[in-house]
Design brief:
Largest sheet: 7 strands, parallel
Structural class: alpha/beta
Number of helices: 34
Strand order of the largest sheet: 9-14-8-15-16-7-19
Number of strands: 26
Helix content: 40-55%
Strand content: 5-15%
Shape: elongated
Radius of gyration: 38 Å
């Protein structure tokens, strides 16, 4: 079957011959011109003079001295006129959204050449509309119906506010157009109206061929009529109403399953058909999934619909950088919060950022934009993998736009184009701010940039006349295909976003011939049936899932088509049952063993009790942390006191108080002085807080935590007073030893010597402070320390305390006791921090040392045994708190 454009090409050659140089072919969009040109060349059989191809927008714009301003400038200028005419000092941030709505109303009013003064007449003074002789009976009835809602009996506050705003819209319209015209600027509707009403226009071409236009607006009708009267207009309209040979409806439970159906739908015949096969996205948000689901045997693809800039890495980077400046800076500590810095540091582009990107806090919006532009330029100059080979600098039009560096690369054209798009967008905003046109604060700027990014797409470049066609609904105009797959053809997507959101009520829009919902639906109905009418086979997929208690419905056009012809109905199912992935052991290959030996070499400090405890907890967690060197995430804010920081502050404060004693005996009198005064305790805690957090001022939770820590320190001093006199042998004291050829050690919080209250002899205690609230359950024996099932009983505390005690005992004749001092439970008279095995406290580590060291050596040997793979834990409860759970499950 001949396509519509092929029939048009045949008629053009009959009508004008092969010299079409004086003919202008006008399309609704540019895409169809490529296909028509190919048909002309093929049918002519020899070289021809091609016609000029222009869009309807090009036709209007080429006949006006005015220039259509960019959308940002248009809303900014409208905002100024709004304030000038109403006296309402509305912020640009609040105005921007409905400013776009008001601009759309102005545009529609001008394109339909409606009488602005009549449409915007003050509804309070209904008599202003007495002269309605030019209206039809139907239009007059529509107006009367609307005004019936605004009688004195229904004069609510909402209507009052509406009428007050309405009374200014006419003034805003005229002021706005006048101020734009003074700058030789306009919005598209104003330009169209100016051209349509200009009787002096001269048209250069001998003929204007209009192809595929339907449901014309008034400005188009006026221009077409003038060209027709001048004998210069020819019209081609696709009026065939041929039903598709085969139609299949498929319901799907998710959007992604629709995309995953593509490889099954793309049979060898459909792939071989090339450009005669089309995948049409009613929901263009499916584009990314569709691209990923295209099978490898599809060699040529032409993608017409744009890729959302919002879904690119550079867009997320810009958002994170703005958040860093707007939300991530703490005035209290005078620097960026670590959490926000970490978010940026984890971005894929982080290695490309300049080293000093976070050197300054920028509260000025202009400075913020220049900072963002500098960073994007730096990324462009740093990495060939994200730079387009296209001459980006040649595309720069703004007076301030510095060209992006150009480094040829074929690795990531999408990244390259997204860099250029967002750079151009930010530069345009910066230009408007620098010129005083855009006046806003930094928070408003953030929301504006997010909105602009959401509205921007990246066009794909390619050969449209070749390969499988992937497109949106609007790109299908005037094109015909043999095989069509329509995805996400749901009500709400087809027709697309039709609503009556407007400052001009439906009744008034209908009365004055403005665009209504009915008009929008009719256009999409035409697109739908036009796309299908010449196809050999059509497959339409829609989402039937229930979301927010609302079931997905097929498009109204699908229902209509079902009444006209029989269709086949199918359903897509996932075909899979969700299964939890079972963690697999990881073999200790030669590379793994080399990494292990290097990671725990003597030069790097050897192995720690924490590493061994991690191995006992889960061998895969040990692998990810110490072999793969993956860092565990730390989501805590720097200025917040979490459990770890709380403990660090307590440790530092205790070290500050006890350090002056050196190895002199600590007496009851000395501790009494500290407790009575309290000043030294507070100073020690404050110094620890500032060292750990670097906070100039404390407030809120900081003050509460400070008081709690002071209380804990006092409780420790009171406990220690009962032991006086005793001697501090070391604070935050590093210890280590060689176990075979492996060095092992760590840091002792406190090492002291006391007189044993039972034996009266001197005894050394290896103390580890604990600020947690959980009471420790005694382990039964040494074997239990190395049993992974006891991790939940904090067997890792035992492992560390026993090791440090053993190291100290090698150099001391006195008995050495491992101790965990839980400060929250230290208030009891008989409190003893010495660890117990069973019911007996370990007064001297030597009593269990040989068995402990034997088990420790066995565990370390297991870690370095190349024949034993790293195996996952079989205790699921440990996985719930593991930062690496997603990697193995």
């Amino acid at each position: 079957m001949k396509s519509f454009l092929e029939s048009v090409a045949e008629d053009l050659l009959k009508r004008y011959g092969t010299d079409l140089s004086r003919v202008a072919v006008v399309f609704p969009n540019k895409r169809a011109s490529l296909f028509l040109n190919e048909h002309l060349a093929r049918l002519a059989g020899h070289p021809i003079w091609s016609p000029a191809y222009i869009t309807i927008s090009d036709l209007f714009r080429s006949h006006s001295p005015l220039k259509v301003a960019d959308p940002i400038l248009l809303v900014c200028e409208l905002h100024k006129c709004f304030i000038q005419c109403t006296g309402i000092n509305e912020s640009l941030d609040h105005f921007y959204g409905w400013g776009q709505l008001l601009l759309a109303d102005f545009d529609d009013l001008d394109k339909n050449m409606a009488p602005a003064d009549k449409v915007f007449a003050n509804l309070r003074d209904i008599h202003e509309l007495d002269d309605v002789s030019y209206l039809t009976d139907e239009q007059r009835e529509m107006i009367r119906r609307f005004f019936s809602n605004f009688t004195d009996d229904h004069n609510s506050e909402l209507k009052e506010r509406f009428l007050r705003l309405w009374s200014h819209i006419g003034d805003i319209y005229h002021t706005y157009n006048a101020q734009l015209a003074a700058q030789q600027l306009c919005y598209e509707g104003a330009l169209y109206r100016q051209v349509a009403t200009d009787e002096t226009l001269q048209f250069d071409h001998d003929a204007y061929v209009f192809i595929g236009f339907n449901l014309l607006q008034q400005v188009e009708q006026v221009l077409f009529r003038r060209l027709e009267q001048a004998g210069k207009a020819v019209f081609y309209q696709d009026t065939d109403e041929v039903a598709p040979e085969q139609v299949t409806y498929i319901s799907a439970p998710t959007e992604n399953i629709q995309a995953r159906y593509i490889p099954q739908w793309l049979t060898a015949e459909r792939i071989a058909a090339g450009r005669r096969t089309a995948i049409v996205l009613c929901n263009e948000g499916l584009l990314q999934a569709v691209i990923h689901c295209l099978p490898e045997n599809v060699n040529k693809v032409n993608i017409t619909t744009g890729y959302p800039l919002l879904q690119t890495p550079v867009a997320s980077l810009v958002n994170q950088l703005i958040n860093l400046q707007v939300n991530g800076y703490s005035e209290k500590i005078g620097r960026f919060r670590r959490r926000w810095l970490d978010i940026v540091a984890r971005h894929p582009y982080a290695p490309l950022l300049p080293e000093d990107y976070a050197a300054h806090h920028l509260s000025d919006h202009a400075a913020l934009l220049h900072w963002l532009l500098d960073i994007i330029r730096h990324i462009a100059s740093t990495s060939p993998s994200v730079i387009s080979s296209a001459p980006l600098s040649s595309r720069a039009k703004s007076r301030d736009l510095q060209p992006l560096p150009v480094i040829p690369s074929e690795k990531s054209p999408l990244d390259s184009e997204s860099l250029y798009r967002i750079y151009t967008l930010l530069n345009r905003v910066s230009d408007l701010i620098d010129n005083g046109i855009l006046i806003l604060d930094i928070s408003t700027l953030q929301r504006l940039i997010q909105q602009l990014i959401q509205q921007t797409t990246i066009p794909f470049h390619g050969e449209p006349a070749e390969g499988l066609q992937v497109m949106g609904v609007l790109e299908t105009r005037n094109l015909d295909f043999d095989h069509v797959l329509l995805l996400s053809c749901n009500e709400g997507n087809m027709p697309k976003g039709v609503n009556d959101t407007s400052f001009i009520p439906y009744a008034i829009r209908k009365a004055y011939g403005l665009t209504t919902v009915d008009h929008k639906v009719a256009i999409y109905q035409h697109y739908f049936h036009r796309l299908l009418q010449r196809a050999k086979d059509v497959t339409i997929v829609y989402n039937n899932a229930t979301v927010d208690a609302k079931k997905g419905e097929m498009s109204r056009f699908m229902l209509q088509l079902m009444l006209e012809r029989p269709v086949q109905k199918l359903t897509l199912r996932a075909g899979q049952t969700p299964q939890l992935r079972t963690p697999e052991p990881i073999a200790k290959t030669a590379d793994v063993m080399t990494t292990l030996q290097r990671r725990f070499s003597k030069e790097r400090g050897g192995i720690s009790p924490t590493a061994i405890s991690t191995y006992l907890r889960c061998q895969l967690r040990f692998f990810y942390r110490y072999v793969s060197n993956l860092k565990e995430p730390d989501d805590n804010e720097e200025e917040l006191i979490d459990n770890r920081i709380f403990g660090n502050i307590f440790h530092k404060a205790c070290e500050t108080l006890y350090k002056p004693f050196g190895q002199s005996p600590v007496t009851a009198m000395a501790l009494d002085d500290l407790l009575k005064s309290g000043v030294e305790i507070e100073r020690a805690v404050d110094a620890a807080i500032h060292e750990e957090l670097d906070l100039p001022l404390l407030d809120g939770l900081h003050i509460i935590n400070r008081e709690v820590i002071i209380h804990y320190v006092r409780q420790l001093l009171e406990l220690d007073r009962r032991l006086t006199p005793f001697t501090i042998l070391g604070l935050e004291m590093p210890v280590s030893m060689m176990l075979g050829d492996m060095q092992i050690g760590g840091l002792i919080d406190r090492l002291d010597m006391i007189d044993d209250p039972v034996t009266g002899e001197e005894r050394i205690r290896v103390i580890d402070y604990k600020t947690g609230s959980r009471r420790l359950k005694a382990l039964p024996d040494v074997d239990a320390i190395f049993d992974p099932t006891n991790i939940k009983e904090h067997s890792d505390y035992y492992l560390q305390a026993f090791l440090y005690s053993y190291i100290v005992a090698q150099q001391s004749p006195q008995p050495v006791s491992p101790a965990l001092l839980f400060i929250q439970h230290a208030g009891g008279e008989d409190y003893d921090p010495v660890l117990k095995l069973g019911k007996e406290p370990v007064r001297d580590i030597r009593s269990v040392a040989s068995h402990y060291i034997e088990k420790l050596q066995e565990t370390i040997s297991e870690v370095f045994n190349a024949d034993l793979a790293f195996t996952p834990t079989d205790d699921d409860s440990r996985c719930r708190s593991c930062p690496f759970a997603a990697l193995c499950r």
